[in-house]
Amino acid sequence: MGNVIDIQHLSKSFGSHEVLKDINFSVEKGEVVTVIGSSGSGKSTLLRCINLLEIPSGGEIIYHGENILQKKNLNDYRKHMGMVFQQFNLFNNWDVLNNCTVGQKKILKRSKAEAEEIALNYLKVVGMDRYVKARPHQLSGGQKQRVAIARALSMSPDALLFDEPTSALDPEMVGEVLRVMKELAQSGLTMIIVTHEMEFAREISDRIVFMDKGLIVEEGSPDELFNNPKHERTKAFLQRAL
Ligand code: ADP
Ligand code: MG
């Protein structure tokens, strides 16, 4: 199938604080990879480096055979990596449909009609097509996050990155978002997910990556990582988390 991205020796420092250290990480087309680890271990920074919201300090991100960090125009790459944030990041002044079409029109240069057709299709997928005219403030957290997922999908990303997509939600709304994510995983979408929902991660992931202090300590199938962790740090984390 081939790798969507291949990250080699990636590092990221903020001042003298080295937050990511020699990260080697690749994702195959159609693969669902979940990144777990304690708060502060560098999970968000890794996702933000993958879609270049942060510029890595060193290393390579290979995309279609090229190290994109050496390219001048990073926007060309960025638009292929979708992101779903903990805090939704919807445009509050715009209705649901506009939220899902603006990027398509501005960045992908799609016509209004085409953008709306694509947006409506994904709003159906996430069960939010009846809310096209609603503004974000009229929606629950779970509904907002489902719109954010539809917006990201509408950009036809090569991979969708999720940074703790259910952490800001009331408990009763977590399930509806996880259900949508599970369907997407089963549909063959390439996904990189940061979450503390361990049962969910075990159920939907092809691979689990455990990070600690800016390093990938261990990775493997859900069964390998959850039932038979090799490293002491993984065992200690899982004992606290499970
Ligand atoms: P996680 O998502 O695993 O909780 P983060 O990637 O958010 O971890 O953070 C890893 C470390 O990097 C933390 O010590 C955090 O304080 C630091 N950090 C993250 N972003 C910045 C930033 N923009 N400036 C300075 N330090 C940062
Ligand atoms: Mg984080």
TrEMBL record:
Molecular function terms from GO: ATP binding
Instruction: From the UniProt annotation, give the residues forming the signal peptide.
Output: none
Give the matching InterPro entries: AAA+_ATPase, ABC_ATPase_HisP-typ, ABC_transporter-like_ATP-bd, ABC_transporter-like_CS, MetN_ABC_transporter-like, P-loop_NTPase
Does this UniProt record's set of keywords contain DNA-binding? no
Recorded topology in the membrane: Peripheral membrane protein
Tell me which UniProt keywords the record has, alphabetically: Amino-acid transport, ATP-binding, Cell membrane, Membrane, Nucleotide-binding, Transport
The record's listing under Pfam families reads:
ABC_tran
Q: Where's the ABC transporter domain?
A: 5-238
Q: Which residues form a coiled coil?
A: none
- Subcellular location as annotated: Cell membrane
* Keyword Membrane found: yes
Family, according to the entry, reads as follows: Belongs to the ABC transporter superfamily.
Give the protein name, as stated in the record: Amino acid ABC transporter ATP-binding protein
